[in-house]
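Quick one - first record:
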Amino acid sequence: MILRKAFTLLELIVVISIIAIISISLMTTNDSLSLLTLRDQIIKDIRYTQSQALFDDKFDLRSAYWFKSFWHIEFSNDSYQVFSDQEPFNGQAEENEIALDSLTRQPLINKFDTNQHIDVNTSQWTNNIYFDQMGRPYFDINTTRYHPMHFLVRETFQLKVYNSQDNLCITIEPSGYIYNDICKF
């Protein structure tokens, strides 16, 4: 009697099927994990922007538009940056106006992956969130000549970070409290 030390075709098919199922679930988890990481990074950077505003009071009697220099975070289609606009208040981040990452000392500009996006559930949204010296959030300050109190956030809003498979939300309260939450839109 000859004994063979080999796998049967059935055993090979079962093993390959199990490996395929595990690899598919890991790929899905990896996308969700990168989205979680992005959401947590955005929360960290929004809080960093808020803390910059708390410690760097921009009130200046010599400037009629002093409030345009509030620290803010500006989102675009594929990135965001943290800066404080200085006179002549052109709304564009110059090299000396961008905040530096506290760990790397590099400009605080972060890029999204190509399949990651951000959206918000308020009509006041203009891709910018400003913070005053008390940590309160504002919208759209840089495009106006009105007093900033007109643009103080008065209701809770959410930022949705999403990709093709999942979405996660960041909630910002009018008081300036920022936290991750279940998406309501």
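second record:
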Amino acid sequence: SSASKPRQQGVVTSTWTTPAPNPWIATVPVPGVSLGAGMDTLKNGDASYGPQFTIQFGNKDFPGPNAAATGGKYYFPFGGFARNGDMLEIPYIGCYVITTATAPVNKKIVEMNSLPMDAAFADDTDTTDDGAEDIGRFSPLPGDLGIVGAVKGATGTTLTDSDDGNTGGAKGVGLGYRYPVNAFKGYELRIIAGTGADPNTFYTVQSSTGAPSSVTLTVATAFATTPDTTSKYSLTLNRYPWASLFDYLTVLAPHEDYTPNVPNAPTALGATAPTATANADPNIINRTNAPPSATEETVGVDGLININTAPAAVLATLPMVVPTSTISVAVAAAANKSLAQQIVAYRHAFGPFRSIMELERVMDPTGLTWGFKDGFGSYPWSIITPFGSNATATYLPTNEAEDADGDITPVNLLNVANPDRVRYDFEEKHLVFNRISNMITTRSDSFTVYIMVQAWRNAGTAAPELVAQRRAAYIVDRSAVTANNRNPKIIPVSND
């Protein structure tokens, strides 16, 4: 008999009974062996392993193009990560040997795994989300990031979303898209606000209807308190919720300069190697036009847009959708304006973004074609790989993303078709996010503070009278706050 429980997805187990006395005689029936299509005459030609995943592993120009050569010319990003989103290239799978001890005399090999075997261990063993997974990458599934929406109505075990994709509901949130039937089966549903709110209790979704009509979710157990139109909910899949690097790492670190100990003055295209400056003292800062009091510990990152505070007009300047051969400048500008409005609507309805990657919750239900899961700005990625469903891929783009779209690994100066030869993986799924990942943040070091002081006569009576009013404004800069300096810089602003 074979092992009773497989260690990874794709292992097929079976049992059989053999007659006594000799189980290995030629007449004993045993299960047929399947080695794959075209190689198997015993069974049916199907491989005995699970679905195949094509994984980019150290492809050309990873982690970034223009690696510096000794005596050669230097171009940004010098072979390193150009954008925060490029950290999606980092794998957490590999080949390794596990031993019992380090001493040669006592060392025994416990386990030896190749890269394909470790990739199998990294799979979540859920076959329904195979189309959406990026095995071995810090690339959460859309359901791991969570979907949030408002309630249109509910019964004991059903909840209907308020957005039908055309009217009603908060724009940019909810389920008003063309999700197939049972796209959310297996998700965890929580009531996060309003009637019945209890973020610590989840209900497992048993089935869901299809859109673009309002999606209805059926859960396994009845709601403790039936939600109503004041309620908001979240849906999470919890397969790879930990797989986000952007809350912990960044490629924007001005206190470490662009490359080790090199001033971050603009580098001329093809310039010779810049002169290194040793940082023997942490108080030395290699930054052009830095103030005399600046230290490497207090250098801020300039020019980032805070997605939690920026108005729609500012957010619309981000290149979320870019002009292509099929998307005009005017259409791209209108799409960016629409997406900016959806970002503002989302945070007003559900609060601030906790991570820059949570932008991938936002889509535009008015067009069905723009959104952060839509790498090209021309097809809805949620249809290609729905959130844990087995829906067929209906809207697939013909061509792979290129340099102009923001996929710069590999750099494709010769315009070769499909240069990295891997389609619909993390590079395409997160392309919109990656394009703007170096331009956005969820926190700021500089804030504008407004203070209004009023003087009232007869306050607390039926006839109060405002007799004086004064407003003051300040810019508060906390970039220089350290463990030894807890006082932010405060700059008064004239408001005459």
